[in-house]
Structure formats: structure tokens, C-alpha cells
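Entry 14. Structure prediction run on the chain below.
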Amino acid sequence: MPNFTACVPAGPVRIMAAMEATLRSEFISADDYLEGEKVAETKHEFVAGHVYAMAGASEEHNLIVTNLVASLHAHLRGKPCRLFATDMKVRLLVSTTDIFYYPDLMVTSDARDTDRYFKRFPKVLIEVLSPDTERTDRREKFLSYTQIETMEEYVLVAQDTKEITVFRRGNHWRAELLAKPDQQLRLASIDFALSLGAVYEGVKV
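Output returned:
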């Protein structure tokens, strides 16, 4: 295994060099990953010692996230829940494996979530699908997210068609498909409802 510290200065430069090495399938610690993300120009997700650069988002992706943030922020104002979008990591420990993902939206309300750079106890997680991420969001992330003890609802929002899939703990994580214009995205855990039309406002699909 390469020794990253042998010829690289300490601090952010060393950490970024270690992260770049990891992109070549070498190992990095969770602590070095977290320090590297503070200065990285590109966001990375972290799974079992390996980092994966995240691609840029499309116009449709950004519009959907903006619509959801606007409605959720207004709905949660003055309530104990907190909304995070795009840049906040969720940290998981799955079978002793450290994992960090960047969900598109996350709602938390657990007093144990005191870290500034990641959250461990989300109540709701929302991912906007893309061709590059859909398989991961539907399989790998679904399996990981549904193991979080505080998770109540996981939402997948398509960006190339008006279609939303909701998974709920109370429904044994079975998929609920929303694809009709008059249907609403309902999140029972935070008493929230939003029409599909509002979710996709301004999006040409």
C-alpha cells in the first residue's frame, strides 16, 4: 500500500494528494477524506476507503432541487426539523464500512446530529435521478439508507420524466409510484405535501 505521507507536505496539500491517489483505487482514511473535502474543488463520495468524484448537475436537476428546497424550507420554518441541500454529507456505518454520501436533500431532527460537516440521523432523504446515478440511487443507496435507524422516507425524483418513487418505513420500504399530474408527493414524517406540478415547475419534461 502506498505511503502518502512519505513525500507530500502535511496539511490540505497532503490530503488532496491522498484523495487523488484514491481515485486511482488506493485507500484513504475517513478522517483524511473529511479534511480533503473541506478544500476540494469537486465533491466526492466515500465508500470503504475509496473516493468517487461527483459529476456536475443538469439544469433540470437544479430546478427540481430548487423547487423542493423552496417548498420544504417554507414548510419547516419554525419547526425542529432542519433542511440541508446538496452540500451536506450523510455518514453511514454499514457492516463496519464507513460511507459518506451527498444526498440532494436531507431533513434531520435528531439532537445527536451535532457534526458540522455530516449528519448521521436523517429522517427524510431525497435524490434526483440522473443517468449516471440512477442505478446507485435505486440499489446501493437504497440498501444503505434504509438501514439508518431514524430514516422514515426515501424519495427518488426522475428528471427526464414527471415520476417520483417514495419508499416508507411504515410501508416496509415498498415502492410507491407517483406519475399522474393530480398526485402529490406526501411525506408523512414531516406532514408535508407538494403536487407533482410544483415539484417540476419550470422543468421541460
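The chain has a mean pLDDT of 88.
Filed with the rest of this week's runs.
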